[in-house]
Amino acid sequence: MEIRPVRYDHPDAVTLDELVQQEYARRYGDGDMTPLDPEMFTAPHGAYLIAYAGARPLATGGWRRQEDAAEGYAVGDAEIKRMFVVPEARGRGLARRILAALEADARAAGRSRMVLETGIKQPEALELYASCGYVLVEKFGLYRTYDDSRCMAKVLVTEG
Question: How far is it, in rounded angstroms, from Cα 91 to Cα 97?
């Protein structure tokens, strides 16, 4: 298994994004409406990763710099987007490995807090994030007014 940085518009990223959108539609009735641009996931503003088994992409995730106070973000925030593992590769720890790599990259880029939004119809995501040290926080972002939305955060750096 190899985790590689790619552009958000890389063909493998596009394919995995289509699959995650189908997953969202199946669970919520619609895909994620958050506007995303490949430049959001380029250093130093973010990163986009894919886990490969040989040439086959199995898992993905990215982070992007977010500091828009009007949407509930704070200075230093890095927001996780498009965490996804193809169904046949689930249960192998790939999401946990992608998440750790995203946290390390965001920390190296000077981000102080990792934030994410997920929903109540993704209990496995909520469990993963909680087991990795994420806690529920006040809602932020596009889905902050949705009842089934849950926002979580984890401090990446401690003052000392």
Answer: 12
Tell me which DSSP letter residue 136 carries.
E
Domain boundaries, the chain: 2-155
Tokens of 47: 């990163």
The two most distant CA atoms of the chain are separated, in Å, by: 45
- Rounded to 5°, angle at Cα 133 from 129 and 134: 55
Q: What is the pLDDT of residue 160?
A: 55
- Judge whether 97 and 60 are in contact, CB under 8 Å: no
DSSP for residue 56 = E
Residues 33-82 have pLDDT tens digits of 888 999 999 999 999 999 999 999 999 999 999 999 999 999 999 999 99
- Provide the β-strand partners of residue 118: 150
Residue of 133, 131, 151 whose CA lies nearest to 141:
151
Confidence tier at 155 by pLDDT (50, 70, 90): very high
At residue 157, the pLDDT reads 85
CATH number of the domain at 2-155, out of 3.40.630.30, 3.40.50.2300, 3.90.25.10, 3.40.50.300? 3.40.630.30
Residues in the chain: 160
